[in-house]
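Lab channel / #folding
Pinned by the channel admin:
"Please post every new chain as: sequence first, then the structure tokens as a reply. Keep commentary short and put observations after the output so the thread stays searchable."

First post following the new format, from NK:
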Amino acid sequence: MKGMIATFMLAAAFASVGLTLAQEQPPVTAPVPGENSFTEAQAKAWIEGEGYTNVADLVLGTDGVWRGSARLDDLPALVRLDYQGNVTEQ
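Reply from TO:
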């Protein structure tokens, strides 16, 4: 029984260290460049799924990021969509 408790405590300690290390990783800044497999229609739908309307003028850059114009809350916005599905504004 003592062996099981010690094993459990050791596993919990390692899990705690793993969580701490994961939390200390610097955040990835979007948009992330990379090979993008979204079609223009898919990119538009993905951006609209984030609440943007009037998505237009989408162009796929050499860095794999879709860029275009849109509106959010009736305000103009320049939007970007990376291959991971991150939607950001310029």
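NK: Residues 2-89 form one domain.
TO: also worth noting, The CA atoms of residues 67 and 80 lie 5 Å apart.
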